[in-house]
Design goal:
By secondary structure, this protein is of the alpha/beta class. The protein folds into 3 domains: 116 residues, Orthogonal Bundle (Fumarate Reductase Iron-sulfur Protein, Chain B, domain 2); 166 residues, FAD/NAD(P)-binding domain (3-Layer(bba) Sandwich), CATH 3.50.50.60; 156 residues, FAD/NAD(P)-binding domain. It contains 19 helices and 19 strands. The strands form 6 sheets. Strands 5-4-3-6-19 form a 5-stranded parallel β-sheet. Strands 8-15-9-10-11 form a 5-stranded parallel β-sheet. The structure holds flavin-adenine dinucleotide and iron/sulfur cluster. The site of flavin-adenine dinucleotide has 42 residues, from helix 10, helix 15, helix 17, helix 18 and helix 19.
């Protein structure tokens, strides 16, 4: 994969990775062994026929390769850019044991970008309308996937989105330098071309309730509202001026274009020295965004070691190349400010690794040793949690943990006509796992509506009835 040089790329928000050339793509496709029992497919949450699409690329028929991927994945230009392939398809590739796995993600991106270069996409085949209406709440990868799959089957599908533009985290979270907005726009245009209606500025739970949607003739609802609320560190000084939560910081910059203030209305505080707390994709995106806003120094403070970082490996490497400094085995204890309440430093405690926890990662333990890092901005990126607005407005909906929806493998909740998937059911996860959940839920919704059509008597049913225990 070719990349822009760190010196150039930190000065703007343009995309960092440039993709494979045609020669590189064909060469890489030729490395694939075309395994009879391909392990890579087992690692793909949406089960793309990986060897088949690679075989087509080998023959130089990139458009057919793209069509093959699109049979299972409606958003390949996005997945080719942001999926953690090293733990999914590439993590399972048989060649990993001998040398390095086939660069499946880069090949996926290559064919998707080839499609983009050809101009507007040809209209896909969609079943004739079947007369049934489904509502999808939230336009992130889970919602867009359910909506596309159902529209293809002939359903009249409407997506309701609280923000003024669709895309979920793909729009307001992941920055332009990793996922250009024009790529996202094209994928959303594709979803619309299937006949999906997208209604924006529509907060379900406030503007309209889920029950009202059912009364309006929607036969089933899919909830894909993500987990966008911030998580707090719970330490002294967290409320000082210039402490941001990553979700707010990134939304200001990505969605509201704060980097171009005052041309755009939303400002963001630009700082000289920034501490980003956390070790996931959100932390990497926040750190690299702060750098592009003009910070001289950006520190990432993470309580475990690099090995345990949940972020995509490629993004950690990119961040290092760009000059971001990492403080591993460090846990913030206090954010210190000046007499006017502005951040001046972060006091951390040095950690060491103890036994593995339930997630398999070794638990950080305090050593008692403290140190301070001088900064004038702190961005907290230690995870997200469920937003209660919608889930609390649905009577009788079973929840787990801090407000996540309980679902079975197919995305069925305990309420008969309500399905859910993505981060609101799993907690913060990945784009492709949200899409995988969306695909399974689309099949379950189709089954449910088809069975209901057969069995529904003339007598009306209550809007929300309980599913039988499974
Ligand atoms: P979301 O993408 O969160 O979308 C939910 C949508 O629902 C939002 O648009 C929201 O506005 C809307 N909504 C919420 N409540 C309501 C309501 N009541 N009514 C109507 N609409 C509502 N994953 C990767 O695989 N690779 C990455 O590189 C990666 N980087 C990330 C970087 C950042 C900064 C963040 C925050 C996450 C990243 N992730 C990454 C995780 C990934 O983006 C999420 O797991 C995924 O987007 C979850 O999809 P979703 O459809 O469940 O929800
Ligand atoms: Fe090709 Fe690797 Fe998949 Fe085998 S496991 S088919 S080598 S991509």
């Amino acid at each position: 994969m070719r990349y822009r040089t760190p010196q150039k790329r930190i000065k703007d928000f343009k995309e960092v990775a440039l993709g494979l050339t045609e020669r590189q793509a064909v060469k890489e496709a030729n490395r694939c062994l075309q395994c009879r029992k391909p392990k890579c497919v087992e690692g793909c949450p949406v089960e793309i026929d990986i060897p088949k699409f690679i075989a087509i690329v080998k023959e130089g028929d990139y458009l057919s390769g793209l069509k093959k991927i699109k049979e299972s994945n409606n958003l390949p230009a996005i997945c080719g850019r942001v999926c953690p392939q090293e733990t999914q398809c590439e993590g399972k590739c048989i060649l990993r044991k001998k040398s390095r796995p086939v660069s499946i993600g880069a090949l996926e991106r290559f064919v998707a970008d080839y499609g983009v270069s050809l101009g507007p996409m040809e209209s896909p085949k969609v079943n004739p309308p079947n007369g049934h209406k489904v509502a999808v709440i939230g336009s992130g990868p889970a919602g867009l996937t359910v909506a596309s799959d159902l529209a293809r089957l002939g359903y009249n599908t409407t997506v309701f989105e609280a923000l003024h533009e669709p895309g979920g985290v793909l729009l307001y979270g992941i920055p332009e330098f990793r996922l250009p907005k024009k790529i996202l726009q094209r994928e959303i245009d594709y979803v619309r071309s299937l006949g999906v209606k997208i209604v924006v500025n529509w907060l379900i739970g406030r503007t309209q309730t889920a029950e009202e949607l059912l009364e309006d003739g929607f036969e089933a609802i899919f909830i894909g509202v993500g987990a966008g609320s911030p998580k707090y560190m719970g330490i002294l000084g967290e409320n000082l001026n210039n402490v941001y939560f990553a979700s707010e910081f990134l939304t200001r910059v990505n969605l509201m274009k704060a980097y171009d203030f005052p041309k755009y209305d939303t400002p963001v505080k630009k700082a000289q020295k920034v501490a980003v707390i956390g070790g996931g994709n959100v932390a990497m995106d926040s750190a690299r965004t702060a750098l592009r806003l003009g910070a001289e120094k950006v520190y990432v403070i993470y309580r475990r070691t690099e090995k345990e970082m949940p972020s995509r490996h490629e993004e950690v490497e990119n961040a290092k190349e760009e000059g971001i400094e990492f403080h591993f085995l460090s846990d913030p204890r206090t954010v210190l400010g000046d007499e006017r309440g502005w951040v001046r430093s972060v006091e951390c405690e040095r950690m060491r690794l103890g036994e593995s926890d339930t997630s398999g990662r070794r638990t950080p333990e305090p050593t008692g040793e403290r140190f301070c890092i001088e900064v004038d901005q702190v961005i907290v990126a230690i995870g997200q949690s469920a937003n209660p607005i919608l889930v609390n407005s649905i009577k009788g909906l079973n929840l787990w943990g801090n407000g996540y929806i309980v679902v079975d493998k197919e995305g069925r909740t305990n309420l008969e006509r309500i399905f859910a998937g993505g981060d609101i059911t799993t907690g913060a996860a990945t784009v492709i796992s949200a899409m995988g959940a969306g695909k399974r839920a689309a099949r379950a919704i189709d089954n449910f509506i088809m069975r209901r059509r057969e069995s529904l008597q003339q007598s009306p049913e209550p809007a929300l009835s309980q599913n039988k225990p499974q």
